[in-house]
Structure formats: C-alpha cells, structure tokens
Amino acid sequence: MTQTTGYEPLFTLKPVAPDIWLVDGPIIRFYGMPFPTRMVVVRLNDGGLWLHSPIDPDEDLLSALAELGPVRHLIAPNWIHYAYLPAWQRLFPDAQTWAAPGVRERAASRKMALRIDHDLTDQAPQDWAGIIDQIVVPGSPVHREAVFLHRPSKTLILTDLIENFEATNLPVWFIPMAWMAGVLDPDGKAPIDMRQTFRKGRAQARGAIEEILAWAPERLIMAHGRWYDAGAMAELHRAFRWVLRD
Description:
Layout: E1 14-17, E2 20-30, E3 33-43, E4 49-52, H1 59-68, E5 71-76, H2 85-91, E6 96-99, H3 103-109, E7 118-119, E8 132-137, E9 145-150, E10 155-157, H4 175-181, H5 192-196, H6 202-214, E11 219-221, H7 232-239, H8 241-244
Parallel strand pairs: 4-5, 5-6, 6-7, 10-11
Antiparallel strand pairs: 1-2, 2-3, 3-4, 8-9, 9-10
C-alpha cells in the first residue's frame, strides 16, 4: 500500500501560475527517512516542457504532460536529485538532460546508467534564457545546487537548500528528527548536516543568496514540504539567516 504524503493528489499537474505547474509524487527513502517528492514543470516559449527534479513517471502524469507539450529538458538540480532520470530518458530519448555539479560523479558511484548532456552553470542556456534565470550556489564541497527563477511568474525553484516538512504529514518518529535537523515547518531551512558543509565557504554562499534575493521572487517552491504561493522574500530571509547573518 502506498504511503500517503499529505500532498495528494499525486502525479497531478497543479497550476502555480501561467505556464508553470508543480507535481507532487510519492515517498522516496533517503537513508531510511521518508521524503515526499515534487517536481516543477515549466512550458517554454517554444511549447517544450522543462522538468525540474522529475519524480517517478506515472501513466496518468505522462498523458497530462503530453497535452501540454513535448518533454524537452530534464533537470537534475543537485547531487541527490536524479534517481528517476534514467526512466525519463528511456521515455523521452530526445530530451536533453542538464545536471548540477556532482550529479555525474554520484550517479557513477552508484553504477547508474545516467546520460548527462549538459552541465548546469550560472548562465542560463539559450533554450530558456530570458524565461528562467539560474545560479549554482557555491561554498560547499558536497552540495552544489542549481536554483532557478521563472521570471514571468516570479517563482523561485529550490530543491534542498530549504526543506520545510509539515509535522501533520510526517510519521511521529520522524518529527523530532526533522526538528533537530532544522527542517520542520514553520522554520524549515537547509538540514543541519548540509549547512555544516558550507562552514568554510559561507561567504561564497552568501553572495549567491544575495543575488537570489535581488531577483525579488514572490513565490517559493522547494522539493520537500510546504511551499509558498506568496511571501517568498520573507521566507528566504528567514530560511537563509544562517548565511545572511554573517
């Protein structure tokens, strides 16, 4: 029996703003801990679809995407968000796969057959320049995450740099762990072990976060937990105070 996530219906396109949707997926286990999954879908000016952190493909979801447009871009935004990409590559062999630093090495260490066509950098490629801005947050030798802004809707798309688990959607045993890690709503942040990897590079990270704040997003979507349809700037200042206070 499939574990509920609190974000049902799953595998369903949920409109965020014109030409951008989120799709909540099932639980995935990471070191035994239950993480709800979420991807973001953007329809680009050419009608093609840009899929951020694709979740487990589902037949009904694939049918819904086909009505929106062709899948052209698959995004692996950090070193731990690539698990379902091989399945999507088999379904859409012509789609281009873009990966953040560290994905190639992590997949290889797990002996996963993952094709990476392009590396994500601070420069948006021509395929979505002007529609989606991007930056790879530096400062950690381990966690290098690509962050995106969908300009037309002023929606910031994060992955794990903010995790915001809602207690009502968690198993009871996981709630104290989420609190200790600093990822429990209403004060979700990057988990403490991830924050510690930025210890020597916090100034570098701060520069990237300040650039993200200069984008002045209005909405904030992350891969795990509660997301924000408004008030993004206040939540960013709160969640990144561990970087900005220096």
